[in-house]
Structure formats: C-alpha cells, structure tokens
C-alpha cells in the first residue's frame, strides 16, 4: 500500500507541475501578440499618451515575468481579471471603474451550465456505452456487432455539428419533440432545464458513446482470450455470466480509464455543440472571446479547459493504478 | 405514438421472440436449437425494423430524408461492389490480389477517396461557376424549378449574396480537403523527423523534445488551436490568406506532437535492431540511418497514422471554420458553409432539399472521414496479420 501511495503522490505532483507549465504556455502564447491590447483597442490614430494610460491601467507596462506571477496569483485566488470587452478604462473615460463584470463573475454561471450538460451526457452515455460494449463483445462478429461497429465508426467520423444538425432535423424540425435552441436561465425548473439540455446532451452522447463502446468491447474481447475465461466456459456457465461475473471485473481498470478519458474529451467537444445549440456554457463564451480577441477571457477559459482536461487525465491515471493489482505492485 | 402503444409493441416483440425460440428448438438445426433468448429477440427486432423501413420507404410520404438515406446507401454499396469487381480484373498482379480479399467497406473507402481527389483536382473544370463569382440573384432555392423559387441554371440555388452553391460545394473539396492534406503532410514532416531524430540520437535531445511534447499534449487540441488562433487573428489582421497559412502551421504543430509520439515509439523499436547497429558501426551518417534504415521499416504504422491524423486535422479545420475562426470567405469551405446555411434546416417540413443544403456540406466532411476510417481499419487489420 505504501508504494501505491508513493506512485499516486508522484502522479499528483507531476499533474501539478504540468498545470504550472501549461499556465506558462498559455500566458506566454497570448503575450506573443504584436503590439498589445492598448494599441488594438484604440486603433491606429491613438496618441502615445492614451496608449500609455491604458497600458498602465491594465498593467501592461510591467515586465513579462512579473505579469505572469501577478496573473497566476490572482487566478489562484479566483480573480481572473476584467474582460477587455467589458473594461471601462478609468484614465480613458475619466471615471473610476466600479462594479464591472469580472471574468470570474461571467464564467461562474456558464461553468455551472457546462458542468450540467456534461453531467447529463455522462448519465446517458456511460450506461449506454457499457451495455452496448458488453453486448457487442458477447455477440462479436455477429450481425449486431457489425452494425454497432459501423454506426459507431460513422459517428466518430462525423464532425459534431453534423450529428447536431441531424438530431435537430429529426427531433426538433420534422418531429418537434425537443427545442432546437437551448436558452437556459438561472431561475429555471430542473424539468425545463433538462428538456432544453437534452438535445445537446444527445449529440455529445453520440460522439462519446462511440469511443467508450469500442474501447469497452476491445477490453472485454482482450480478456475473453485468457485461460481462466476458457475454464469458466468449459464449466458450462452461460456466456452472459462469463462476461459479467468473470471478464468484467478484470476489465474494470481499462474501462474506468476509458470513461475518464472520454469525459476529458467531452470537456472539449462541448465547444462546438454549445455553439450549435446556443447553449450558454463556457465553450460559447470561449469562442466569442476568441473572435473578439478578449485576452483575459481567452486565457481564463483556456486555463479552465486545460485544468479540467489534466485533472480528468490524472484521475484516469490514478484510478487505473488503484484498480489494477499489477500496477499496484510494480516490479 | 403514445406510451401505451410503445409498451404494447415491446410486449408483442418479446412474445414473438419467445415463440420464435420455442419453434426454433423443435427443429434439429444446431443454430436454432442453442439459440439464446437475446439472439431470438435480436432477430425479431431486425425483422420488425426491416419491415418498418420497407413500409416507410414506400408508403410514408414525409419520410423523404429516410428515402434519400436508403437510396444513398444502396448506391454506395453497389458502386463499391462494382469498383471492387473492376479492381479484381484491372491493374497489376499485386493490386488485383489486394482487391480479392477486400471487404466492401474498404473498397467504398478507396472509391470515395479517389472521387474526392478527382473533384478537388479538377474543381475548376467541374464547377459551373467560379467560387467567388456573384452570378445570380441572392437566395435562389434549390431544385431548379421556377415555380418553387428555383432556377434551372443553379441546381442547388444560390447563397445570401448570389454565389452558386453547387460551385462552392465543389470548390470546397479543393479548399477544405487540400488545406487539411497540406496540414497533415506538414505535421508528418515535423513530427516524423523529430520523432526519428529523438529515437536515433537519444540522450538529452530526446528528453528535451519529449518533455516539450508532453506539455503541448496536456492541453486539449481544439482548445489550444482556438487559443493560438486568437493570436493568429491579431497577426493576420484582415488578410484571409495569411490567416489560413497561420492556421495550417498552428494545427500542424499541434498534431505533430501526436505524430512525434508514434514515430518515436516505432523508431525506438527499430533502432535496437542488429542491422542498425551494423550500419552505425559502418560509420553511416545520421541522414542515411533515418531515411534508409529506419523509415522503410516504419512505413506501415505511419501510413495508417497518416490516415487517422488526416481525419483529425480535417475535422479540426472544419470545426474551426464552423466556429468562424478558420478558413475565411470568399474561399469556399464546407465548415463555413454549414454555419452560413444552418438556418435553412428549419424549412425541412416545406422544402426538404433546402434543408438538406447544410447537411450536404457537413455530410461531405463526414463521408470523407468515414471513407478514410474504413480504409485505415482494413489496412490495420491486414498488417496485423489477423485473418478471420
């Protein structure tokens, strides 16, 4: 158990190190911009004085290293800065900027919405993928297996927006069952919120289920070749029992890994789907910020996405160590 | 359909499956005798689905999209079959042999890729109008029937500013596929070279590149691409061509990290072989080692990776364009077309062809990716030596 704790601690430290390096990459990348925001904001006819004033306001006149630590320190305490699009420069307008919406206050409700979408998707996708994966492994090389294989391959191959528009076509336009636009407000009942989230969640389900199902199938088929499964079969157990009681527990490690990895994928897949359905989540905020070149917002969203991605990968790593006896006792 | 109807249908299906299995056990045939209930239910479900599909195809008027889908699948299957037949009788002995053991999906993949390549290369001859030319009235509906707002000169209608949509779809093959292909090649050049170099030289160089790649891979690729595109948008200003160039470089760099991983792993297995040792002792230079010894032995996995990587790059570029930060108008591009035409989907009830326009552009993307996936699946299956 001691060695497990050490390995897990190593992974955690490595994860934190990765996070720090990633934050440096994000910060440096954005600061490669030619000129800076002050020039871009004021346009070409700006006087030197006005540019300098805004630079001073935003702290752009300080050296890069100092700015990085300033940014990181603030980010860690939950202050992600003020969105440029919302900024009201005190030196420019002559009045003090007060009660401006900060990046954090804009992101917080949208982050909750995105998490809600991801949670709904996971609730549908994980049981569905596991069931389909087990069934496909059980009836492998049958017509059912081939059909599922073909369908999942098609849904992996399709861009998210293609799946989204097909679902809109059939479930919102031709048969108006669900709304095609997910406008969600803060004070909305759970039922209504679910109804409006269902279509984007179904789109994401199609994408994620395909990956998860294929990997579940592969993991179980891999195990079915081992001698103890042969033994169980020769004992006369039913195929279902062999798979569920004998193969599945040992396949759990790779499957847990797959689920965590796909949830990480979900975090990024959310961007396109949110734009299609005008879902008020963090992905849409990110895309809008990219188009407006709203640097603090882009940095903050990127940092959040990267954090979620790294943490879920870390979780996958740690869980696969904990659930695999061979990894738990490394030679 | 009401809930009680669905419930009744399920009960009927389950009872039929039970009866089917019961009847099957009476026959002596091993398959029917040992059939489990789940298999029986599966067969009954299949029969019910096929029956409903036939009914919908011939008798339900509203099922236009379903009918198109079935017709499309049948055309695809028949042409793939014909193509495989052709391949079995025309060509060199090697190619004929490859076609003999080819599944229909793989021959469909090859056929589709060939067609896309031809369309992309000869777009200028195939397209009736130029991609940027404003040739007609704006928003002419597809169908070519003047009574329903169409125009025979523009079979698929025109867009918001009067450009011919069919020409733009055809030119989209050139731009979207061409740019994705160039990006993939660049990613392979970069990732492959660095990966081989790291595996062959080893030591600190390997460590430095590998750690850098680790960091880049820790950021999800679409997010990283969007972040860098923010910067590219600022650098390129209003120049669409320059932005496309930046996009190619950005996505190539991001995807080269994945290529690097594979190239290094593959080359790592090769450089420990005896013949590499012999070449080193002969005093061969690094270039000779990489290009003459390592590369020929790493072709098969790298080729499969090239196909998969192309799919990823293609989908990323399409997504970026769809989000409005990728390929810039006036260049015709499928991702942008989907976004611009997406509102037409609401007219599906009145004019199915109009609603199909955004799906055509998106489907063109999906079809090519699917074709490449089919082909790669078959190649991997063949090179892994699995024969079942």
From TrEMBL, chain A:
Q: Name one GO biological process term.
A: transmembrane transport
- Domain ABC transmembrane type-1, by residue range, is 111-316
**Topology versus the membrane:** Multi-pass membrane protein
Entry's transmembrane regions: 12-33, 115-139, 160-178, 198-225, 255-277, 297-322
> What protein family is recorded?
Belongs to the binding-protein-dependent transport system permease family.
Cell location: Cell membrane
Q: What GO cellular component entries does it have?
A: plasma membrane
Is Glycosyltransferase given among the entry's keywords? no
Pfam family of the protein (one):
BPD_transp_1_N
Q: What's the protein called, per UniProt? A: ABC transporter permease
**InterPro entries assigned:** BPD_transp_1_N (IPR045621), MetI-like (IPR000515), MetI-like_sf (IPR035906)
Organism in which the protein naturally occurs: Mesobaculum littorinae
From TrEMBL, chain B:
Q: Where in the cell is it found?
A: Cell membrane
Which segments constitute the ABC transmembrane type-1 domain?
173-376
The domain of life is Bacteria
Q: Which UniProt keywords apply?
A: Cell membrane, Membrane, Transmembrane, Transmembrane helix, Transport
CC per GO annotation:
plasma membrane
Write down what this protein is called. Answer: ABC transporter permease
Membrane topology, from the record: Multi-pass membrane protein
